Amino acid sequence: MEGSRWQWNRVKVFATFSQRTCEEILETPLNNVNSRDVLVWKENRAKKFTVRTAYRIAVRLKNPSCAEHSLAQRHGPTWGKIWRLNVTPKVRTFLWRACSNCLPTKELRQNAKSAVRNRKQLATGFDKPKSEVMGSKSNDEFAITRTARHFRPTHFLLKIQSYSLFCETGVEKYESGAFEAGGHKWRLSLYPKGNKKMNGTDHISLYLSIVDTEKYSLGWEVYATFKLFVFDQIRDKFLTIQDAEGTIRRFHDIKMEWGFDKFLPLDSFNDLPNGYLVDDCCVFGAEVFVHERSAKRDYLSMIKEPSNRIMTWKIENFSTQQDKVPIYSRIYVVGDLKWKLLVYPKGIHEGANKAISVFLYSVDCVTPELKIFAEFKLRVKDQINHKHAEAKTKYWFSAAFSDWGFSQLLLRKDLEDASKGFLVEDTLIVEAEIMVMSIAK
Length: 441
Hints:
Helix content is 17%, strand content 34%. By secondary structure, the protein is α+β, with helices and mostly antiparallel strands. The protein has three domains: 10-99, no CATH class; 134-291, Apoptosis, Tumor Necrosis Factor Receptor Associated Protein 2, Chain A (Sandwich), CATH 2.60.210.10; 300-440, Apoptosis, Tumor Necrosis Factor Receptor Associated Protein 2, Chain A (Sandwich). The strands form four sheets. Strands 1, 2, 7, 8, 9 and 11 form a six-stranded antiparallel beta sheet that branches. Strands 12, 13, 18, 19, 21 and 22 form a six-stranded antiparallel beta sheet that branches. Strands 3, 4, 5, 6 and 10 form a five-stranded antiparallel beta sheet that branches. α1 runs antiparallel to α2 and α3 runs parallel beside α5 (89-99). The longest helix has 20 residues, at 106-125. The protein starts with 9 loop residues before the first helix and ends with a strand. InterPro entries: MATH/TRAF_dom, TRAF-like. This is MATH domain-containing protein. Residues 153-288, 308-434 form the MATH domain.
């Protein structure tokens, strides 16, 4: 368009579009375009047509009589018309969306949201009575689920005769007798006209309370999941109401009651076809499953350079102990853990008859559950030149594998070479040094 005169540039329009499209474009008035939410075909600074500039003609092109699905083949009349336009691919796509009624307008977005809500309601309420549709909230805004089942509640049933007379007495709250479940005493609290303090008006409110807690220790807590019921006497089913996803509730001295402020709408409860109130009689129920806090707890901590981390063992009269398999040191305490050193004078495994084998042994690993980590060095000391034979490793010690080390820490030929200083006056010095270890409790 010619911006200075607010007129279409007819030369460019006819050079770009078909005869019919040109007529539609030229019929579009350009006056007051800045005061109305209307975008028109106009070149940008790069002399190109963009998606933004396509808006006006897109709306003009939209014709319900010729609109096609976005999966229509390209030889369709509308698509073919758009495909032949000498415009950028983005503009073609935009125009096609407009003609297919796929523009992201406020109206379409609102319709899409409504469609999603309808699908959710349909999926949630499928094959269920109106009173059983999910979506109610408990007193702390957790979602609840409503299902129907045939078998009766495991722990407690409350049957009320002459229910209308019971309501006429003006009783705001009724507390049932106590029942036992999971080693604790419980009772139901029923508000026949709703717990108005918790926004339960026009509903029945039903709660589960823990009772007889006077003898519990200070700071007691009981964790439980529960289900509350009302009996459908016509279909012989129990409507089951529970926290969604098996939410575990914590009962304690400050919060001794959990339940549902809007357990059931009064109109649903009083509606005879629903079967909850028949012959002026109704039945409620409860199931409680306590989660005992008996889980085993492990405490693991890594300690760097623990106290007394170097264990030094002098083996005197070493030549007289060649046939012992193995030689055990005394117990060394490093940090809070106990260790021993093991020496095989004639070697084992790969070092049999050609080397000295040295191992670190965990005294504490006696139960299958306990594992101890250690990063350590084992060495045979050179008592003359201080060129020790040593090696470093790391290992998780357990009851099944309580020792770890090296089968060829020192070759026997080096041991027997007096100049190398490993065996002096028939004394061998073996050390273990723990750099890092774990403490488990």
